[in-house]
Structures are given as C-alpha cells and as structure tokens.
Design goal:
Strand content: under 5%
Order of helices and strands: HHHHHHH
Largest sheet: none
Radius of gyration: 19 Å
Oligomer: single chain
Number of domains: 1
Shape: elongated
Mean pLDDT: 94
Low-confidence stretches: 1-5
Number of helices: 7
CATH architecture: Up-down Bundle
Distance between the termini: 55 Å
Length: about 200
C-alpha cells in the first residue's frame, strides 16, 4: 500500500492544483462576463479587430496537441517508449506553433497601436479599452501556462528516454497530460469569448 501511496498522493495533489487554476481562470471569466454585460456594443466592436483565422488555427493546434499527449500515455502503457517520445515531441512542436501564431497575432495588434495604455487604444471607448485589457491579460496568462506545460512535457520526454517514466511509473506523464488538457480546455473557453463574440 505504501508503494502506491506516493503516486496516488501525486495525483490528488495535481487535481488540487488544477482546481486552483480553474478558480483563477474562473474569476477572470466572471470579470469578463461582468464587463461584457455592461459594454456589449464596445466588446462587439473591439472583437472585430481580432483575426478569427488565427484563433481557429490555434484552437485546432491545441486540440491536436491534447490528442498527441493522450496517445503518448497510451503508447507508454503499451511499452512503446520511442512512440511515446515521438508523440510528446509532436505535442511540444504544436505548443511552440501555438505560441508562434499568438506572437504574430500580438505583433499585428502592437503594430496597429492596440496595446495597453497606447494612445490609439486610450482614444477608444471605455468598453474597448476594457476588452483589450482583458484580452492581453487572459491570453498572456494562458500563453504562460502553455510555456509551463511545454516545460513539463519536455521533462517527461527526457525521463521516458532515461527509463524513469515507464508503464510502471507513469504518474508524471499522466499529471503533465492533465495539466496540458487543462491548458487546452481554458483556450476552448477563451476562443469564443474573444474571437466569436460579434
């Protein structure tokens, strides 16, 4: 029993941590909802500045990356470490792709003067200023979570290679996968709120 208590404790710890993350983003979603309710026209107007193609592309990228993480877990259980590492590598590449697309998107907004406290943005309606403030805060925080998730997956990949994450010791991969799925789920909420609001 003691042998299994550590993995079980790690799983419980991860679920508790994920709950705190859900509370964090849940609070931000609530804040968004309040401001959206008070400034519906301004939020609709501001949302037209976002590129739905980029948003849709990044949604597809993250959903695919979640699939590859799930398949990596399956490959590990089937004792296929090489396939596990390949799938984790694919997830890392997709995560990097997400950040690159987001970087291009933010760059385009900055080029048009649409960034926090810019003269161009401050000349707009109060609701539009709030919209872009929430956009940068929430997508920026999400991007940070993507980076953290990539760090976890990269660590797991190295440990699979060294045999320290194995079918007998899969907890680190399982917990990292849970974290990555949470990151994906958060984006699935962010995408319609910011890109499909109009």
């Amino acid at each position: 029993m003691g042998e299994h208590s550590s993995p079980a404790g790690a799983k419980v710890g991860m679920w508790l941590f994920l709950c705190t993350e859900i509370l964090l983003f849940g609070g931000l979603f609530l804040l968004y909802s309040v401001y959206r309710y008070r400034n519906p026209a301004d939020f609709r107007e501001a949302s037209r500045e976002l590129d739905r193609f980029f948003g849709t592309l990044n949604t597809a990228v993250l959903i695919t990356s979640s699939l590859s993480v799930a398949l990596a877990g399956q490959a590990l259980s089937l004792r296929r470490p090489r396939r596990t590492m390949l799938l984790l590598g694919a997830s890392l590449a997709l995560g990097a792709g997400f950040l690159v697309v987001k970087g291009f998107e933010w760059g385009a907004k900055f080029a048009h003067g649409l960034y926090p406290s810019s003269p161009v943005l401050l000349a707009r309606a109060q609701g539009e200023i709030l919209y872009f403030g929430l956009y940068y805060m929430m997508t920026g925080l999400h991007a940070l979570h993507v980076l953290i998730g990539m760090g976890l997956l990269a660590t797991v990949l190295v440990l699979v290679r060294r045999g320290r994450v194995s079918p007998e010791q899969p907890v680190l991969l399982e917990n990292s996968g849970l974290y990555w799925h949470l990151v994906d789920m958060i984006w699935i909420f962010l995408f319609p709120l910011f890109y499909l609001i109009g």
